[in-house]
Structures
1.
Amino acid sequence: MGLCAEMLGATSQVFDDTVNYLKTRIQFGVPIGSFQAAQASRGEGVHGDRAGALSGDAVARAADAGDADFEKLVSLAKARCSDAFVLAANEAVQMFGGVGMTDEYDVAST
């Protein structure tokens, strides 16, 4: 459960950093977040973030209830949270471009 929480926190941070970057980076006189491709990527990121969060919530409820399927739910949640994190990190790399590989942004260490 702890690993799921860590992955969800990292996913949320990467997503927030990327959205902030898309709002502040100007190209062709407008924020790059206004471009259609950037908006589609943000939508995918939100979906992945929510799926991971729901899985994490289900595991926490199962732990509280003493559910017999707890171990299976943990495995499922870890897979979902991992998928959400990989999606967020990959989208961040795409949105940040080359500058995302510098130490100026935390996304370089994801």
Note: DSSP finds three helices and two strands in the chain.
2.
Amino acid sequence: MAVRVPLPFARPEMRLARPICDSDGRLIVGAGTALDARVVQALRRMAVQSVVVTGADDLPGWETLPPLDEQLAALRRRLGTTSAGDALEELAAAIARYLARRTARLAPPDDGTEGPSA
């Protein structure tokens, strides 16, 4: 199963599930590439923040980025136990907007490749 992992948690036994391309669409790293130290360093120089990998079945949940709906549900659970005031509701809305923007930014393009902002 493919899962999105922040680059600092990438391990050598993991392999890219999707290719990564630069901003001009040129292939940088192909799908199936093992994430050794050299590849991870190159991705860091490109400012890649996370990658979609296979071979990450044993990762703890905190080392992966959950889907947006799970993140929003966790936010509601955390803030749902308090009495909602105007300031708290504004904070919750701001966090939800941030999570949505981050998810959109990290989502792969429609062509199945990942750009440098992955």
Note: The first strand starts at residue 3 and ends at 6.
3.
Amino acid sequence: MEWYQYLACFFAGAFLANLVPHFVMGICGNKFPTPFAKPPGKGLSSPTVNVVWALVNLIVGFLLFRASGINRDNMISLIVFFAGIAAMSIMLSINFVHKHKE
């Protein structure tokens, strides 16, 4: 694999991890921060905006996943993919800890 495919692996994991909280909060009818809120990433967006944002993340994550050439025979690509998931998950948990206190 080329270096840019590993980069695609990492960001595929990040985008696919990011879709989860937005999709879940959106389909539950809850407001949740998105980049489109005021202030971006801090204010709360409507459930519909969250579902749409989740679907955008799904499409981008899927396209990156396909472009990266991730497969079970290449353990390094899987590790990089899961590192993207872990990095985004940890970042989101830190960023959204105070979402209801503002």
Note: Helices lie at 3-27, 47-68, 75-95.
